């Protein structure tokens, strides 16, 4: 154990020394003595204490003496350039008085060992000062590490800082300044101890109740409750009431209530944890590499959309799910739908996150390569909301695939700070500039209804969000620059895409992969479809087919023996395909939409539901119109006329007379019809010939003869 000059030790259970902190001033090994100085606060002057060297070392071995530390006051830690010149002069003057003593080799030994040391009184006499002054300077010098700056004046202690003072009769504070002569201001009142107690009662009653309230409002409530008698009496006496001012109230509130406590108790615990508490670390403190942590969250977009089948029909505001890698800030997946935030919509976001983005973007007319959005991986952990994922389905389906689910506490959005910030960026960059946006504010009476401006479909909004995601993944972020040196070594810009790629290329990640069919089988719920003679039917109007050679045979069997049920996995984002278990002992096969159902190609489930609802409404309407009513009336009159004519005819002797000779009458009817048709045709030709002759005569009258040029043979 090294025993160093000016080191500080915590001493306990040592004979001749009281427990506490001591500074080691000197070591006289040849005499076997150490010189210590007690650092305990005291108004009395102290002398150094001598301790046997072996006793000290024995105390160190027994842990009765331990190394410790002593914090110097802040004003002793300044450089000479920051110290006022008058302070330096005072320091140097005091050091000049003791310089001759502290520079003597055995000065500390003599002062500590000799009971009545004559060296300090003699030095005081030579300097023309008194002994107590020298001891006061030496105590300060020894206490602060035998450094000349330890003699700097401690003006920080001047005036008794932090100590309460009793208010006098004279009004404290600057008086109100008035520009108009002759106007008299109220004298005011100093806050007494009784007033301070009332201040505390008012603050505890009105402010520290978990809700925010303005100081001025609390002040008014306090006057009405605790100073009502004085205010009423002052009004009777026609004078200003002697009550503390608002300025005095503000001052004493800060003095009497710790600011941190005032902030904490003036709001709810959730709001304090989200928006007002001190931050403890970075969002990436517990996530080391890409894939360590994915964050999933949903928000209702601040824009109204219309149906893709009819742009005049507003269908509401869609829900957006983002899945973001916590370390790299990479947006690894998204899902936009008309579903509310739920496990049903959340699992679609996970399917998108774990699948290739090239085909996903191609559906929306955006051509990319896999390198432009290389996210088709499963993370080690997933942080999500309790509402969507605390359910049996999530535990049975997501946990075996991902491994570990973490749930953010309720009303603690800051626990998912990365994804929440991405929503904010999306609103600023895109959503709040679209037609039909609510701009994140409530509707105010008199403002234009944003639903009247809605023009975009769900597919168009999704397309614009994808474009923004590609931009954000390639945007440089300052936070990423300080997270790793790999970007600097690789000379890459600190973008989420570069961060993701550089860690994957060096195999520094916690990501895994799975087949698309496996992902869908584990995440999507099993629904039932029917094999019919027309194909695999879903929702009565959507038919699918596959490339299996026996598919036509299955349709034939269904036509003759009835349809059969099959298990299917439905992707609500895209109706162009489904995964069907075609045989009981097989996996799921991808089936594509048939041509007869092409109107549902690339349609979202929201559009399919809109079509079904529209169809129900149309079928529910009364199937009559003006035309049907008129046709019914005409048919009824024809029937009545026919019945009347039949009744006017002479009655037949037998029923068989009505059908007797039916074939002969049919031939006669056909013959007469042909004669009539020929007559009508001849009349038409005659009238046509007359029209042609008339037109020819009219043309002849209009023809002008032109002299013909003689030919060469006529010459």
From TrEMBL:
What residue stretches are annotated with the Integrase catalytic domain? 286-504
Q: Which PROSITE patterns match?
A: INTEGRASE
State the organism of origin: Oceanimonas pelagia
- GO MF term (any one): nucleic acid binding
* Entries under InterPro entries matching the protein: Integrase_cat-core, RNaseH_sf
The protein's name is: Transposase
Instruction: Choose any GO biological process term that the UniProt entry carries and state it.
Output: DNA integration
């Amino acid at each position: 154990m090294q025993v160093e000059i000016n080191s500080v030790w915590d001493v306990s259970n040592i004979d001749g020394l009281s427990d506490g902190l001591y500074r080691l001033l000197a070591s006289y090994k040849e005499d076997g003595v150490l010189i210590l100085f007690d650092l305990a606060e005291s108004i009395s002057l102290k002398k150094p204490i001598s301790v046997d060297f072996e006793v000290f070392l024995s105390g160190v071995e027994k842990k009765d003496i331990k190394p410790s530390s002593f914090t110097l006051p802040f004003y002793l830690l300044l450089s000479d350039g920051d110290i006022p010149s008058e302070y330096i002069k005072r320091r140097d003057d005091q050091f000049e008085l003791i310089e001759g003593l502290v520079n003597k080799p055995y000065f500390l030994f003599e002062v500590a060992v000799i009971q009545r040391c004559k060296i300090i009184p003699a030095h005081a006499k030579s300097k023309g000062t008194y002994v107590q002054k020298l001891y006061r300077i030496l105590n300060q010098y020894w206490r602060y590490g035998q450094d000349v700056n330890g003699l700097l004046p401690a003006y920080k202690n001047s005036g008794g800082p932090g100590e309460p003072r009793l208010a006098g009769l004279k009004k404290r504070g600057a008086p109100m300044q008035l520009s108009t002569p002759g106007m008299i201001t109220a004298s005011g009142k100093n806050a007494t101890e009784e007033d301070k107690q009332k201040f505390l009662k008012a603050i505890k009653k009105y402010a520290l109740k978990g809700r925010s309230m303005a100081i001025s409002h609390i002040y008014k409530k306090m006057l009405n409750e605790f100073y009502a008698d004085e205010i009423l009496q002052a009004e009777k006496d026609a004078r200003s009431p002697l009550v503390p001012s608002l300025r005095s109230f503000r001052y004493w509130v800060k003095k009497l209530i710790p600011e941190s406590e005032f902030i904490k108790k003036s709001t709810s615990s959730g709001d304090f944890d989200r928006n007002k508490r001190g931050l403890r670390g970075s969002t990436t403190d517990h996530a080391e590499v890409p894939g360590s942590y994915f964050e999933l969250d949903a928000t209702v977009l601040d824009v109204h959309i219309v149906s893709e089948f009819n742009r005049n029909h507003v269908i509401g505001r869609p829900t957006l799910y983002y899945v973001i890698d916590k370390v790299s800030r990479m947006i690894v997946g998204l899902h936009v739908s008309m579903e509310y935030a739920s496990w049903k919509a959340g699992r679609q976001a996970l399917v998108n996150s774990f699948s290739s983005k090239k085909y996903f973007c191609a559906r929306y007319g955006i051509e990319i390569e896999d390198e432009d959005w290389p996210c088709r991986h499963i993370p080690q952990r997933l942080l999500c909301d309790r509402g969507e994922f605390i359910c049996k389905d999530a535990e049975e389906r997501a946990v075996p695939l991902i491994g570990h689910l973490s749930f953010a506490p309720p009303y603690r959005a800051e626990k998912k700070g990365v994804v929440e910030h991405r929503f904010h960026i999306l609103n600023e960059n895109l959503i709040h500039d679209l037609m039909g946006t609510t701009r994140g504010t409530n509707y105010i009476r008199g403002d234009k209804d944003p639903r009247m401006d809605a023009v975009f479909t769900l597919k168009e909004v999704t397309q614009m969000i994808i474009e923004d995601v590609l931009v954000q993944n390639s945007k440089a972020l300052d936070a990423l620059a300080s997270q790793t040196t790999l970007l600097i070594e690789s000379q890459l810009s600190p973008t989420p895409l570069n961060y993701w790629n550089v860690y994957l290329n060096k195999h520094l990640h916690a990501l895994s992969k799975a087949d698309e069919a496996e992902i869908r089988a584990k995440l999507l719920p099993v629904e039932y479809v029917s094999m019919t003679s027309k194909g695999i039917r879903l929702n009565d109007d959507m038919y699918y087919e596959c490339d299996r050679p026996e598919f036509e045979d299955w349709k034939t069997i269904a036509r003759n023996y009835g349809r059969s049920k099959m298990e299917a996995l439905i992707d609500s984002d895209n109706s162009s395909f489904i995964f069907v278990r075609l045989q009981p002992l097989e996996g799921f096969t991808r089936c594509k939409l048939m041509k007869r159902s092409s109107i549902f190609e690339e349609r979202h489930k929201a559009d399919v539901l809109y079509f079904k609802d529209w169809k129900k409404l149309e079928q529910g309407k009364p199937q009559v119109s003006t035309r049907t009513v008129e046709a019914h009336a005409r048919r009824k009159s024809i029937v009545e006329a026919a019945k009347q004519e039949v009744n006017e005819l002479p009655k037949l002797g037998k029923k068989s007379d009505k059908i007797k000779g039916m074939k002969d009458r049919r031939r006669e009817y056909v013959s007469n019809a042909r004669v009539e048709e020929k007559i009508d045709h001849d009349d038409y030709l005659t009238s046509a010939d007359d029209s042609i002759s008339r037109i020819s005569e009219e043309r002849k009258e209009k023809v002008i003869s032109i002299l013909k040029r003689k030919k060469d043979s006529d010459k």
